[in-house]
C-alpha cells in the first residue's frame, strides 16, 4: 500500500456544529476528483484535551483515507450507542459528511 499525498493547494470546506454543548469545527480537504482526502477537527477550546484528541483522531482518519480506506468503512467502524448514534465527536463529524447506512 502507498499513501496518496494531496496537493499543497486544494479545495476545502469548513463546517461548524455542536456536540454535547461543545462547538466543533470540521474542515475537509478534497482530492482533485472531489473525494474527501483529509479532515481537520478542532474544538471551541483551543489546546484543551478534547481539542488535542479531535485533532489526533482527524489525523488518523486522514491517513486512513490517504492509504485507500473508504470513508464509508471508517464511518461503519466507529463506536455507536444502542440507537446507532456515534458515541464520539469524531464519529459525529464523520456522520455529518457520510451518514451511516440504516440497516434494512
UniProtKB/TrEMBL annotation:
InterPro entries: TSCPD_dom
Organism this protein belongs to: Bradyrhizobium guangdongense
Catalyzed chemical reaction(s): a 2'-deoxyribonucleoside 5'-diphosphate + [thioredoxin]-disulfide + H2O = a ribonucleoside 5'-diphosphate + [thioredoxin]-dithiol
TSCPD domain ranges (all copies): 8-80
Pfam families in the cross-refs: TSCPD
EC number from the UniProt entry: 1.17.4.1
Name of the protein in its database record: ribonucleoside-diphosphate reductase
Organismal lineage: Bacteria, Pseudomonadati, Pseudomonadota, Alphaproteobacteria, Hyphomicrobiales
MF term (GO), any: nucleotide binding
Enzyme class: oxidoreductase
GO biological process, any: DNA biosynthetic process
UniProtKB keywords: DNA synthesis, Nucleotide-binding
Keyword Nucleotide-binding: yes
Protein family (similarity comment): Belongs to the ribonucleoside diphosphate reductase class-2 family.
